[in-house]
Amino acid sequence: MLLARRVVSRGDHILQFCHCYYGPFGDVARQYAELFRGTPYKVTTVYLTEPPSAEVAEQSASERVVFLNYSSDDVGGLKLGPIRALRKIVAEHDFRLVLAHRFKPIYIACWATGLPVIGVHHAFGDYDRLSHRLFARFFSNRLGLLGVSDSVRDDIRRNLPGWPATRIETLHNRIDVDAVRSGLYSPQAAREVLGLPSDAFIVANVGRLHPDKDQATLLRGFARARAHLPPGALLVILGTGRLERTLKALANELGIAEYVRFLGQVPDARRLFAAFDLFALSSDHEPFGMVLLEAMAAGVPVIATNCGGAPEVVADVQALFPLGDDEALARLMVERASWSVEIRAQTAEHNLKRLYEHFSDEAVRSAFFELSMVRKVLGNALA
């Protein structure tokens, strides 16, 4: 165990318990720690797996960060080791509340402490299993649940039909809009980093090469649209995964291989989003869609599947297409490519306003402290 400490003043403490910091989950810790900025509460963030990292500790925006560094084998079964470790941490401070991300940390937090626990769910299906539903019922008197979108929330409610609606709510993911925007490369510099031509129309997708992301529909849609897009238009896909060979073979089969760039895993990719002219999310029931927020922050028009959490982010039916419908996707690509500079600027301004109003740290902080499950434990912490 390694502890990365800042000065901790006296007062009430909040325990945040994360499964890992891989990918988007490092920023998730920051998001929830930032909720308590300007309140009397001090946040301790605990990572169940992955090794200590000074960079992650700093990014977590917490008074104290603990890396338990358990392996995947260690967190299987009854999880007795992690339960004992968390119990020791809880004994060190006057904790009022546990915020636990994903099912295993929720499970460990409930067994390790007698504290109120708010479990944050970032995916669908966490209560499909009977054992998980029985667990939730057992701890229902001190367990509240959040979904990162209404879609995830509704999935939980379907599996736990006896729970009051106020115990299963939505709290959207968010970004530090100003920080994301200030870290962006210019469009030209971003294209140079990615090795893209300066004058091509770029349609982009960022995500794992996995069936859930349905990049096959993206390829088919681009193949349909290509003849009607500006000459030299490219489809750029950032990410790695088990479908890489399959997707490259499909691009060949569709006759578009020379117009598709598979760029692999790109570090800190969101800083390069200004390189794109259009961002397309083709996912099958994306729980939320953080990449949509990042594209919007970069001023890039977005289109997405009309399922999962994406419609809540985009909030524009004209930018949505049915899952798997490559013809509808192609129409949206062609339509966006024909937009004037003025329309693109108006759309960017509208999307930025939406980010600040609904998906910024400040907007979601207010929503969090208005939740019944939070007010019951912390009262009016913003007063």
From TrEMBL:
Organism superkingdom: Bacteria
Residue stretches making up the Glycosyl transferase family domain: 190-333
GO terms of molecular function: glycosyltransferase activity
Record CDD domains: GT4_GT28_WabH-like
Keyword Transferase found: yes
Alphabetical UniProt keywords: Transferase
Organism annotation: Pseudothauera nasutitermitis
Pfam family, one: Glyco_transf_4
Protein name in UniProt: Glycosyltransferase
The keyword Ubl conjugation is annotated on this UniProt entry: no
Limits of the Glycosyltransferase subfamily 4-like N-terminal domain: 35-178
